[in-house]
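It is worth pausing here to work through a concrete case rather than discussing structure prediction in the abstract. The textbook approach is simple: state the sequence, then state the predicted structure, then interpret. We follow exactly that order.
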Amino acid sequence: MKILDSKNPFKTGISYNLILQENRLVQKGNLKKLENKMEESVKEAKKRLSGDVCDKSRDIHLMITELDKNNNRRNWIFDRKKEKFFEKTKG
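Step two, the predicted structure:
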């Protein structure tokens, strides 16, 4: 939430979160629920800031990695223009 707060003088904000899964990466319906929760967290942060969200001149980088016990991983990057997380594929 701090990196979105307009009262902070940051020019760039970076947030990296790691989700450790006990067994395997989430699948199917649970995957969609996880993606929805990630997007809801950004909306909730903005709501809590009640209008004090930084403008588009601040670079915001939100990254999330999901990792399971076999070192399988999935990565998401937040697209600020579309206000949505996108799975980052290898390549």
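Step three, interpretation. Residues 2-88 form one domain. The chain has one domain: 2-88.
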